[in-house]
Each structure stands twice: as structure tokens, then as C-alpha cells.
Records
---
Amino acid sequence: MFSQWAAAGPIAIGYMSFDVTSGTTAQFDIANLTGPNALAPDFPVATPLAFNALNLLVTFSDGTTHTFGLSDFTLSVDGMSLDGPTVAIGGTTLPVAATLSGLVGPTSIDPGTGTMMDIDAAFSPVMLGDIHGPALDDGALGVIYVHEPGTVTVPEPSSAWLILIGAAAFGLRRRARSAALVALLAGAGTASAAIPVKLAAASIPSSGVVGVSFVKVTAMGLPAVAPAGVMVTIAPTCAVGGPVAGQAITPASSIIPVIGSTSQVRFQIPAALNQGTYYVSLSGGSGAGAFASTNCSVLNVTTSNTTLNSCLPTSSLAVALGPTVTAYVPNGWWGGGATGIQVVPIEGAGAPTSISTAGIVNSCSSNPSTGQAVCTANTNDVYLINGHTLTNTLLSSATGNAFFSGGGCRNCGVAVNGLTNTAYITVGLSDSASGSGIQALNLATNAFGTPLRLRHIVSENISVDAGRNLLLTPGEDNSYGLVRLSSAGDLLTEFENSTIGGGGEYDSSASDCTTGIALASNEFTSNVSMADLNQASFIPGSGSGIGSWTSPHNVVTLDGSFAAGISGISVAPGGQHMGILTGEFGGQSFAVFQLPATPATGGTVPALVDYAVVNTLPNTPDGASFTAGFDPHTITAYTSPNDGRAYGVIADWATGTPSWLAVIDLKKIQGAPRIAGTHTVDTSVYDVLASGAVRYVAVH
């Protein structure tokens, strides 16, 4: 559906679209169809226009609103369109309406006639949905119009619409453009018998996660056809005119009208693709009804994104992603150690550096959207770090120590939600029933929220599921707790679940946020507890009681022995669906595991697809035995922005402070030869160092 405003001579220049990119996330994207992107006659403007001073007001189902500016959009690979801000749709608070206003330039344009004309700088506001609901659907869109000066008629606000007109100038984060973009616009000719279809230069949004994301191409001239009749070809080069090596073909999942003969064609990025730049073309039909695109839309395929990269547990380690992948490694733990943090490049050039801190640091987490690191001390100190520089020290509201099997702490850990720019500090609270709680920190304002006092002990390692607006907190009292978040990232309500089981004490959380599989390590056992958040049911609490939740669940017992049992656990965010786990307080063993690639339905019980155990990490380059660290667990995982592979990282604490990082290629370990009849890697025939499955990086 789309909006039109009563005005003299409106000229369409593009559209804003609500695009559901996964089961838990959606974006407000802007297609700029002017200049080289023009799709005449529907979008005829021959002059390239640029958007500025944008103001996007989004209303949610709980009545709250959020305003996004131009800095919240990212320049598309076409250099003109805008990939929009991401919102969570996997929880109970959903976007119901949106209003976009702003300016364009220049204001003297060729409307496709060859004659210049003047337009107002302000385009007509675009409105989607209704503030009273229901939730916005995929494909809700509004055409963006410009007008001759003095001809715009803007309707008065009503109870059904919330309009905010006004703008603020923001800086624009720019994404690297594809070097081959010019080739797109030329496009080879298609077969003469086929109905020609013209595509916009880039998909909307212009990037997506392999095997996870849905994206769209804007097409003009597509004949009436069912989605299944549209074959979408994604290839390393433009496949117009014939197949090319490395291409993948998938049917469209939906077709959404825009205006005139222009429509959106939606499809999911196939799991078989590798990370890289691809070109999308369309074809279908037969005989006189055959059609094919005459050019291609560019699409950047990734293996993760900033929302998914928030899906990590609190840990002693943080990994900041970029061309240089950097680990923030505390020198301390709950029981002691030294002050300070080591900044260690694990991909890219550079040497480790040290950051001095007043207190002993136990945990760090990195914001995947901004790169800012947040670290917590055993005291109330919270350290904010940009790059190699400590920029601020804040104080949490902890009032006492929270106590775990591995020690006590006032600040115990931190996890960052990149979608809302919020850090969550686990804290000791003397007036809480569990002696513990969670406090939110707004990283845009450095303002703390009121701590949420938990009925059940907070997890040693909480996790963020940004798309579902949840925090995962399985605690040592064996309640798998969930905390619901608002659309702005505020802490709302605690839910308990004591039915999953596991045979030990829950020690750490982890989650595959793409499929909704939640995990918990079980200390002193070889068990992993699993639950499916995609099929979860929630029962609100009554009176002063907390709520509860249930879902299909399972407990998996692994081969192998882990020091203090399975303690630390992490899933590499993105489309690889792989994770890593290990023990603590010594030991050299770890396991990698493969999770299902698609969400389950119909009560299906979650399970591991496969796992592989390495009983002994090799000695570190200094000849010492590798020794797993202490609480709050010296393990994390990440998906490389450089090669798209999933890696685990474990810190070695043989000397009492971290000395080495083991960087582990999860897929190589999974594919290594195993001892017959077991899940144990046969290290007598497979050298994990020589194969590149494990490499060591010095911390100092």
C-alpha cells in the first residue's frame, strides 16, 4: 500500500518501504529512483536528487515513539538510496506507524521532459500504518513526491495519524560502494523474445545475511505473474543473457505493487552463497509471456550484521569488528588478577596495547554498531573505551556483591544491545530477593536506568536477543530467566522457567538469534540445555509475582570432559549457526557445535546437529600448557567481517593473567577427522595448529 497527497503536479522520486528482513527484524528503507536510478514513466526525474534533514518518527504498539535522523540511515551501494534503521519485531512491542519528512536537493530538476523546473526542497511527508495498529506488515510503503513551489497540500493531523514535520541535520554514515556499480547500470541486453524488465541499481536493503535475510529488488515492467513464477538469479557477475559460474537461483517469495508498473520482488538470500558482492536479475515465463531483466541490482551478501552481532553473552572477552578485528581482554576476574585491559588485534595488523584502569576489570563487551567498548570492574566502575582510549568512567548503582560459584562482584558483567545502543550491567543489589539485578546504561547519554531487581539469581553470563527484545539470564538456581525489553531497550519484566533441566547449575547463556535457539551451559556436567524462543509462550505475573515462560526444550549430553564441567558457551552471530563451549578454572578441552539452520515449528524439540570435541589444546608458543581462565568465562565467538567464517576465542590464563588468545576456526574443527564412533577430534592425525584450525595471538 502507498500514500498519495493531494497536490498539483506531484512527481514521484522514490519510496519508503517497511522491509521485514528476518523473523525478528525489519528496516525502514528509502529507494531513491532519480537520476541513473530513474524508472520512467513511474519515477521520471532525470536529475539525481539527494535526501537530507530526514526525520523518521516510528510509533510502537505500546504507545512509545522513536525518532530517527539521517545519521541512522546508511548510504546504499547505489550511492543514492538509503538503507534504513532496524527495529525489532520478534517481541511484543511492534511498530504500528511511521512518518517520514525531510528535504531533497537540488531544487532545480529535469522531470524527465528535458526541461528544467523548480521544486520545493521539502518532499511531501510519507505516512505508513496507523498509531492505533495493527502492526506494520512487510511491504507497507509510501511513495515520495516532490512538487512545484507553493503547490503542496498537507492534511491536518488526525487521531489516526501522528505526524511530526521538522528536520534536524545529521551526519551520514557512508558504506563502501561497490567498485563494479557502473557495470550494473549499463546492463547487457536480454533475449529479444522476452518482455524487458528494468531493475533499480541496488536491492533494498542493499545488504543481507546469507541464509537469513530477505531483501527486495525494485522492478519496472514485470508482467502479472505469481511469485513462484519469478526466478531470482544471484551471481558474482550480472547474469543477464545467460548463466554465469557461481550463480544461485531462488524463487521470489512475494511481489508488492509500488506505483504504475513498478513493484518490489522479495526473496531470501540463499544459504549456499559466500560473503561478497552479487548481482541480481529476474526471469520467468515462457513463449510470449517470457520476461527477463535487462540489467542487474547489486546486493552485498554478509555472514552477519550489527543486530545479530549483539547476540553474544557477557564474557571476559569482547570482540570489536571491522577490517581490524580487536579483542578487549581484561587482566582480572571476580576473584582477583590485575587492573587494566589489553587491546589485542586478532585480525589485521597491529600490536597489543594496554589501557590502565583504577579497578580490576572482569568483563568487556563491544557495541557492534559504534565499535565502543564497555568494561566493568569488580567495583561499581564502568569504563567506556573508544579504540585504545579510556574516555569515561561511570558508576553503577550496585549496592552489594552478587555471589556465584566462581566468586563475588558488585559489577559482574556487561552485554551491549547494538540495536538500541544500550549496555546491560549485571550488578549486586542488597535489597533484591536474589541479591542481584541488571542495570541498563544508555550509551548515547551515559545515563543509567533504574536497576531491575531479579527474583532469581542473575546469570554469570547474560545474553542479548535484540530482535526479540529479550535478555537471557539462566542462573545457578536453575531458573532459565528471560527479561523483556522495551523498543528503546529499557528493562521491563522478569520471566522464570524451571522446567528445562540440565543436571547441574546454569552457568552461562548463549543464543542463535536467527533461529531462536537459546542455550545454557550446566556447570559440573557435560550437559547443554536448549530451549526454543521461537515457540515460547509467556504467562504474565500477577500481583508482586514474576511471569513465567515455556517452550519445547531439551538437554544434550556431550562426549568429553571439561574442567568444572561445561561453563562458558557462545554462538558466533550470523548465518553460520555454530558455537563453542569450554570449561573454566583450568583445562585445555573445548567443543564446537552446529545448530539447526532454520527455525523450528510445531513443537519440535531443539537439538544439536553435530558437535566435535578437542580434548587438549596444544601448548602455547612459549611452551606452556594452555589453561582455561576463570569467571566470568574467558570465551567468546564472532563471525569475521573479512572472510565470513565463524571463530571462537578462548583466553589462556596459565600465568594468572591472560597471556594468549586461542583463535579457533569452528568449521575446520567440525570437519576434522574423529576417533571412530565418537565426536572427539583425532589429534593424532589432525594437527590443529598446522591445519590452521587453531592459532595463538599474544595478549601482551
Note: The two ends are 58 Å apart (CA to CA).
---
Amino acid sequence: MTKLIPYILFYLFLVPILKGQTNIKGKVTNKNGEAIPGANIYIKGSYDGAISDAEGGFLFRTSKKDTATLVASFVGYDNYEQKMKLAGGTTEINIRMQESMNVLNMVTITAGTFEASDSKKMVMLKPLDIVTTAGGGADITAVMQLLPGTQRVGEQEGLFVRGGSANETKTVIDGMIVQNPFFSSTPDVPQRGRFTPFMFKGTAFSTGGYSAQYGQALSSVLLLQTRDKTDDASGWNINANMAGLGATYTHKGSISGSLYYTNLTPFFNLMKSNIAFDKVPQGLNTSLTINENLTKNSTLKIYGSYTENQSIVSFPTYQSTDSFYKFNLKNKNIFTNGTYQVNFDEGQWILLTGLSYSRNTDKINIGNDAGDRLDERTQIRTVLTRLFGKNNASSVLFGAEFHAIKTGNIYNQYDFSLQDNYSAAFTETELYITPKLAGRIGMRAEYTSAIDKANIAPRVSLAYKTGQYSQVSLAAGQFYQTPEKNYLYLNRNLDYELANHLILNYQIIKNDRTFRMEAFRKDYKNLVLEHTSYYDPNPYRFPTGPTDNKGKGFAQGIDVFYRDKKSIKSGEFWLTYSFLDTERLFRNYQKETMPTFASKHNVSVVYKQFFEKISTNAGVTFTHTSGRPNYDFATTSFAPQYTRPYENVSLSASHIRTVKGTFMVFYATLDNLFARKNVFGYRYSADGKQRFEVIPPMYRTFFVGVSINLSKQMSKPKEADLDNL
């Protein structure tokens, strides 16, 4: 009998407890009725709960009484909560969870845009990618030419996007248009961009269908966002290479000053050049950056730079093989850009204002002839954004901008000048209707005083998530641009040029692999057409005939991009292919035909490998561009003569050394490894009877340098973080 006492006591105490408990069972599904295994279901404020099984089912007991709150949670879904009465017995409840809107599973609008920031799901390139890409020369524009949608044009600076000329792409820093993003142009010698990739936290390269926040670009915008203040480090950074010597000092992460002296004498002494320099390019650049978090809700960014450069080059006159003239260029450039951003109402309102001023002057002597070029722009911009919806994922914004533009061109007895007051207002809303469906609708209105005309441009983008890792996007809109200044010098009665964009995009990102395919159609209207008695292929000619807006054209094609950061340990590669079909009637063309800066096929293969044991990053890039069309002087048939295909194999390497806390990065590049004799086009004598090839300044180039970081920060700088690709 004594042995039964424990069992009797167990029965007497346990049965009342069990009778006071409630069994809760059910099934967890998504909105489509599909089971969600692994969901956490529990009673709020207690330890009673369970994990859903492979079929989404669950069962648990709770001793809670009266009213309680049942909670279900799972990654990628909004928390589910429901109040329920607990009266003992068994309660059955089926839980249907809704997908949450977060960066892990939310659809993003990708049509026409390559993002390169650290904050977006659709990351394509980071600043370090730009620096370590062989064949890019650490130049933002040069690396963008390795992405689909661009054409390789080796004799001019700029981005040529989907059949568009270089002036159809605008560079924008923190929302402000950059008047002169490249160093001043020299005939048939492409110039680098003025800005280092490490100035920016992200890069968005649009190949079309871009936001209503931006305008005056028929084809594309390159959006650059400057870095935020992230630490209070102070220190020096020293750079020495075959092009010059520079130093930067940063004080407490807020103020940075730079001084850089450029002299390409060492470079040209080692390399065989196809161009004769009477004075090699040399110059001085200084800049000041202020980046301060004024409060926890407001930031101030100011950047200013001053640059002087000079070079003297002997170019062929194209009259005979032994006839040359001297091209003497002295350039001075001032650029300032400032923005202030403040968030209020718990971050739901964002106000961004900006002010920018730039002035670029060129003193030019062409043989015995003298000339001046002037570009000046003052602009102010304000954008007010309201965030709303789940996780503040949706937004609506209103903005306005004003530009005072002054340009001039003096050549011997000719003196041309232009003043334009350009203004724009825009609004745009981005709605996340569901986690799988997003839309962006915008409208932009512009007025240009130089032609005394206005326009209204609607734009729309849609994106739908087709799977856990894939989505499709659609973008369409109208894009206006004021005619080039050389035409406006002579004719102020011209109208805006217009391009209508339609883009369809498919993208899948999974396991550090990205596949992207995009089809596009671009229709040009109101292009400036110059009426001349014959065709002159000289790209630097000044208009001589009457002009109007009777030009037209189209561009259509397919772009493919694949990037793999998974398959090769400590390595990655990307492949791009672009097909372009385009024709135009514009400038002094006599019929609608393929423009000379366009090419049908463009292929790029980029491979990078990091060797951890020796702290070295190596890369190789192969590019192929099919032949570009050229048309004979005074041709009437416009039968194209194609250049030979452009091909290039380039190598790069970077090596890190650490000496007593000082980081040193040694880098080297070898461009056009096999010294292929690429031809970019042809120039003609004044009578059109002689033709001369346009070739690169050098067939092969080698470049080395070192960057030394003397910062007091505890971790190595991003410039040295080669393994963070």
C-alpha cells in the first residue's frame, strides 16, 4: 500500500492540472495555402508553444486561462497575432501568414538600372570592384563600359549607351548634374573621369527608363552617391605612381584635404606612344571634403576641387602623311557640390537640398589659331520625400531644381555664347502593393529659356516577383533633352529632342550568382538635323548648314549579364553580351543609317582571383566589340565600311603589405596584353581623297603604383580590403 501512495498523489495532482490545460493545434500556411514548416507558434508572455512540422502542423498545451494572445513568427513573414479564449479542452486554429516587406524578399525595380551600392538587394558593382577590374584603369566610366548596354568607343570620352551618343548620358553626384565629369577633350584621345571611385558609397548606372527625378539625358544617367561619415579616424594616405604623386589628410573622419601633382613623363618614357607630345600632360589638383553628421537626424556634405592641366600634342593635319599641327590645351576647372539632409517625424519625412557651382575654361591653340571654351553651371535642388506603408517601404516625393548655365566658344574671329535658365519640377511615388508587386509612377516638367519651350515627361516602372529569387520588371517613359550647344549657338528656334523608352527585364539572384536579361526599344524623335550639300564625317566639325528637328531614329536589342561569386573559391567572374540594332537620321547624315559610334555586338569577360596566403588580388578582362560603321567623305549611298573588331586582353594585380600598422597597397596593370592594333575609325583630308586611321595613343600600356595608408584607425582601410569582393 505504501508503494501506491506516490502514484495516488501523482493522480490526484496531475489530473486537475491536465483538466485545466488547453490543447492548441492547427496548421500554418501562406496566403496561397502552402504549408510553412519551421514557424514558431507560442502564447505571448509564456514559454508554451511549438514549431510547425513539415506539413505546417503544430500541437501544444498551455495552462494559461481566460484570454491570451497566440503569436506565430517566421523569417520573411509578418508576425501573426490573434487573441483567443482558453477554456480547456482542444482549440483548433489555422494560421495564414503574410509575406513581410524587407530587403530579403521584397521585389525591387530593376529595369534599366544597374545598382552598385552596399544597401540594395540588386548589388552589381562596388567601388572596390571598379578599382580591381582589369582594363578599367580604376576609372568609373571605363568599368561601366564592361557592363551590358554600353559600346566601346576608344577615341572619345563618355558613356555611349544603347545606340546613344556620349552627350546623351549625364553624370549626377548626390542629385546634382556634373557639367564637366571628364578632363578636357583632346581630339581622338579619350579622357578619364575627374572623380575617384572611393569618393562614392554607391553607383547606379541606368541604361534607360530612369527615375523622374532626373532629366536632360536621352539615353542614360550615371548616379553617384558620396560616402557618409562612418568613423572618427584621422591620418594620411600617400599615392605614388607613374602618373604623379598625391597626398590626402583626413581629420576625425569629417574633413579631408587632398593635393595631387600629375606628370606623365615617367609613363611616356617607358611606353612607346603613337602620339607625339611636345609637352606631356601635367597638372595640379586640390580638393576639400567636409562630411559631418550635424545631429542624429541631419548630415552635411561639401566637396570642392580645383584643377589645372596642360599638354601640347602634335596631330596629323590629315593632308599628307608628314604634315602635323600643334594642339596646345590649358585647362582650369572649379567644381563645388554641397548637400544637406534632415530626417524628421521618426524618419518618415526626408528633406534633401543641394547647391552646386562649376566652371571649366579651356585655352586652346590649334596651330596658329587661338580659341577659348567656357562651361559654367550654378544649380540648386530640393527634394521632399514621405515614407509610408509596411516598414516604410513605399514613398512619395516632390522636388524642384533650377540651373543657370553659361557656355561660350571663341575661335579666331568667331565668338559664340549661350545663356540658359533651366528649371524642372517632378513628383514620383514608389508603391509596394504586395511583397511581390511594386510600381513606380513619376512625372517631370521642364522649361528651357534658351529655346523658350517646356515639356512634360511621364514615366512608369513595374516589378513582379516570379519566385523566391527571381523577378520581372517593365519600364517605360519619355525623356527630353535640350539640343547640343553648338546647334543652339546658331539656331534658338529648335525644339527638345525626344526619346521614348520601353524596357523588359528578367533577373534572378541566388547563391551569390546573378543572371539578368533585358530587352529594350528606344524611339528617337525631333533629333537635330543639319542640311548640308554633302556628308562630312569629321566628329569635331562646327555646324555650317541650316538646322531643324526633322531627325529621327531607333535603337533596339538585348543585353545579358551573368555574375558568379560562388563557383570558384576566393574568385569571381562575370560575362556580358549586348546586341544592338540601331539607325539614325541626325547631325549632317543624308539618310537614316547606323551611327559611327554604335556596334552590333559587345562581349566582356571579367575574372578576379584573391590569393589569401600572399594577400594578392589578380584579374583578367577580355573585351570584344564588333566593327563600327564608317562612311566615306561626301558619300551619297552611305554604304558602311566597318572597322576591324576591337579586342583587348588586360591584366591587373594588387598586393597588400602591412608594416607596423601601416597598410601599403602595390598595384600594377597591363592593358592590351597582345598589343592588338585596334582601329577606332577614320579621318579624311579636306578634299576627302585621303583616309587616315584613328588608333589608340598606345597599343600596350603598363602602369604601377603604391598607396600607403597612415591612418590611426584600428582596421585596414577599404582601399586595402581586397578580399572583400
Note: The CA atoms of residues 675 and 699 lie 5 Å apart.
---
Amino acid sequence: MRCFTRIIAIVAVASLLLFSVPALHAANAVALDKPLTPVTMQIRWLHQFQFAGYYAALHKGYYREKGLDVTIVAGAPDRRPVEEVLAGRAQYGEANSELLFHYLKGEPLVALAAIFQHSPSVLLTRKDSGIRTPQDLIGKQIMMVGGTEDVDFLAMLSNEGVDPKKLRILPSSYDINDLINGKTDVFNAYLTNEPYFLREHHVEGRAIQPINYGVDFYSDILFTTQHEIRQHPEQVKAFREASLRGWEYAMQHKQEIIDLIEKHYRPKKSRAHLEFEAAAMESLIQPTLIPIGNINPGRFQRMADTLVQFKVVAAGRKLDDFIYDPNPKIALSTFWQAVSVSAILFVLAGLVAFILWRFNQRLAREIAHSREAEHLLIQSEQHFRSIIENLQDVYYRADTHGSLLQISPSAEGIFGYTPKEVIGTQMADYFVPPYSANDLFNALKESGGTLHNYEIKVFNKQREARWVSVNTHYTFAPDGAVTGVEGTMRDITETRSHQEKIAQIAMMDQLTGLPNRRSLLDMLQHSNATNQRRDQLGALLFVDLDEFKPINDNHGHNVGDRLLVEVARRMQQLLRAEDSVSRIGGDEFIILLPRLSQARAEAEAEARLVGEKICALLAAPFEVAGKQLHISASIGIALFPDQDLDSDELIAKADSAMYKAKHRGRNQLVMA
């Protein structure tokens, strides 16, 4: 009797839960009429365009539409976002790599969106210092902030083989005048800030950016805590959506948002400084190429590996709980839990029925039990089918030979195939070479029977290649024998496309569309190695524009930029298809002639001829913005291969020859 009472109680509780669902919906409807929820957003520093998206979301009413009354609090030395959010004085904040640092140290933090796809942190030098690359920093005075702020610089030095002990590192004074007045050779800076002060003092600067040397950190990351997500999941989602909408508006209406900042926040920066900051942020956020706030888990993993490499944190903590998913998918574990719960409920119902009919005749009792079991089986199958049919990812099941036994209807939306077309076919039929089903099965075996985020290419119905990320595991018979595989796959073609675009951008000068220094080093290394094997000569022409700075000063940077684009176009028209021209700095270009004569005298003559043509071509007047502009070029030429010199040393040799051309009167060339 006691057992019977317990079972009745369990069924009553389950019924109560089921009937409570409509009541919860009604409660949510009433909640829409509640007053606005107060929320605090802690930004990193003083009010400026760096936080424009949050101002736009507040003053355009996007937060209010989501039911939020948001207060934006300026940062200060004693008011840092991570500490404020962890202490509960703010629900949301914005941080850079210190966010990941504190998470890896055990703090319950969650990254909601990466606003800056590339870090604005650079090492800033004066152009006349001759410091161009990380190798040039050896023996120089360098101001750095210290701690996690310097990890990307340390990783850049490591990638370039530069020992930090060979640098004269000083604590940052946070005063750009120390660089202007020569108290330091190199100054830690933000691309959005300190270069403006150099321009105001008519000092030409050069930025050494970690991204050009294989180190690419996120920055200005919107975040909250795991507690906030558990307690207020809908509020977190609403705040994130409104903030990203604000950022999209701010980047499309920069002047309007600058007006708003000046009116409501009284920034310490001038309007010209705010405009400079807004323009510099365009290349860091890349709103026309990548969805604002996009997060690539692999990028955060590389950041974490870098922090571990330099012993800032200990290894061990995974990033599973660090990156926010606004639209979580149904996991297989959740699916099986749902099936298990349903099965338990139906078993309980069967037990109740069995107890109620226990006094009937044995035959009637057996018939009733049989009917209940059949009903349970049907209901369980329907429940399983409902879950599979509503999955956004593609669920599949195959036998040990790779023959597909089941696939969810979502396959049609992603790949164009209906389940009927796919079931019975071989997995191997859909792999794009060199990927194969055998490789997938081998990887599954090597990983112990479970595989996560395995990326492959497959064909869709139109025989177009699509990237997919696969999660899969073995299925087993009751005796433990492997019967096949099952799992899910997700179309990641757009994500891979974004990643490839980012990689392409990292190799390209954004103004002229020419290869940048990083791309040049790859091409030069390849040409140098090829020419050594073939006993053939090539040449580097280091081109520096004469009289470019007065044009920038007198006519403005917009005219100067358009002139640089026209210079690039002229030089490209002159070169052969196998030759290339790269922009490596403000008004500095390098022409690569990979294939010249084998005889040194003939190769020098060919390189000189190209250099003379470039000088004549650039000496001709330019028509830019209705103005006739005059410049010339000083060119230094270095042949390669040359006594086992590496790429940086070859560039330095051509650079030295270019300066000799400058000292001899400009508008000429000098052989190194």
C-alpha cells in the first residue's frame, strides 16, 4: 500500500508540472507590462567613440524596447569592468584579454560578443627612428603596460625569434609626449588614440602590429557572469541583441553618434579626435565583412594557449562555459534525457494501470499490460521522431559499413536532400576529396569512440562543396558490440568563409589593395628559395615617395590616401604579371622582380631599367581631387639570393640603398 501511495504521488506531481506550463505562459504575458528593469553597463574607460554602440543602443531606444533601463558607467583606474561585474555593482561590462585571463583563473565569466575583431594595441615608433620590425626593437627603450596587456606583444616577439631580455623595457608613462620628445624609442599605444597626437604634432609614426606577425587577439569584449545567465537568460539575450543593434547603427552613422557623445557625455577628446577614433575603428571592427560581435571559438583558444605559453595562467581549464550561445541547439545528451524521462513517465503510468487492474483475471491483466506496453512504444517513437524532426542541426545514424539508416528532415534545408533520398545510400558518396568516410571512421577510432567538431567538406544535391562540423559517436548492441555511428552535423560554410576573408585581409593593405608586409615576406621567402635552386637572380626595389608629407599636411589625409592609391595603380600597370608591388608602410612600397637574368650584370641592368621607369612614371603629375600634385621617388635596389641573407635582411639592404638615393638628391635609384 505504501508503494502504491508513492506512485500516485509521483504521477500527481508530474501532472501538476504539465498543467503548470500554460500558467507560466500567462505569467510571461503579464510580465510584459512590468516597469523597465534597471541594468548597469561598466565600460573600460572615459566616454569616447570606443563605446559608441552602447550610447546608440541607449539613446535610440533599443534597450528600452527590450524592457531595460540601462546606465552606462565610465571606467577609472579604481573602477575596472571585470571587478565591477564580479562584485555585482554592474551586470555587464566590456574588457579585453584580461577577461579571458580571469576566466582561466576560475572566475565565472562569459563572453557575449567580440566588438573589436582585431586588437588596437600596437607598438608605436617615430618613422625617423628606423624601427620597422620586431627585430629592430633589440636594444631599444620600449614602454609597456605589463601583465596581460603585453601578452600579444610577447607572443609577436616569440614568433619573430626576438628575446625580450634584449629589449630595454620600461613601465609605461601613459604620456605620448615621451615618444614625441625622444624619451623612449617605442611606446605602447592604441591605433584609435595615440597616432592622432603624433599627427597633431606633425610627427610621422609607424605602428608595429602583432596581427602582422601571426598574433590576432580579440578586444573590447562584451561580457557578463554565468550567474546572470542562469538567473536572467532572456535579459542577457535582450541586452546583447540591443547592444549589437546599437553598434550597427553607430558604425553607419558616425557623425550623428559623435554629436550625441558631445551633447550627453562631455568627452575630453576634441571632435577631430573622435572622428579619427571612429575612422580607425572601422578596420578593427570590420562591420562590412563580419557580423558585429562575431566570436570564433578557435581564436579564443589560441588566446588561451598564448596566456598559458607565457605562464600568465596555468593550463587546464576548458573554454566550454566561456563563450555565450544565444541560440543553443538541442544536444544529444539532452535528447536522450528527454527520451529517458518520457519512458519513465510511461512506465509509471503502466505501473499505475497494473496496480489498478491487479485484482482482475490474469488474462485480462496480461492483455491490459500488453496494450499499455504497445501504447508506450508508440508514444516513445513519436516523441523521438518529434525531437529529430525539429532539430536545426542534421541528425544521422549509419551502420558499420557506412550505410545511412536514418537522417533528420533538416538535411533538406542544408543539403537539398530529403531523408527518403539519403536513407540506404553510403556516407562515402557525399565526401569531397580528399576527405573520406574512412578518414572519419579512423579519427573516431583514434579518439576512443567519440568525436567533436570534426570539420570536413561534403557535397550538397547540386554537387556544391559545403563545410560541416561533425559530432559523432559509436552505437552499441546490448552485448557491447559496435553496431554503427550516430551524431549531428552543422553547416559551417559561412563561418569558414568569414575566416578565409579574415586571413585574406591579414595579407592585404586595406587602403591600396596591395599585398602588405606579411604577404611580401611570404612571396620573398618563396622566390629566394626558388632562385637558389635554379641559380637565378631576382631583385627588390625599395620605393619611398619624395615630397609626400607636404601633400598630406597641406591637402589633408584624404587627398594623401587617394594619391597613394593612384601611385599603386601606376606601378602595377608597369610591371609584368609575375612581378608584384607591396605597400609596407605610409609612403613606402617594395617591388619584387622574382625572375631576372642569371648573369649579375644583366640582372642589375634589368632591375635598373624597371627602377628608372618607375622614377619617370611617378615624376609625372597626378590629378587628385581636382588638384595637380607632384612627387618623385627614391629607390634602393638589392639583388637576391645574396650570401644567405634572409628576407628581413634583404629588405634592410634595399632600404639602406634607398636612403643613399635620398641623400644624393632624391628622384633617383641606387644599387645596394
Note: The chain has six domains: 1-34, 36-117+218-309, 121-213, 330-388, 391-494, 507-671.
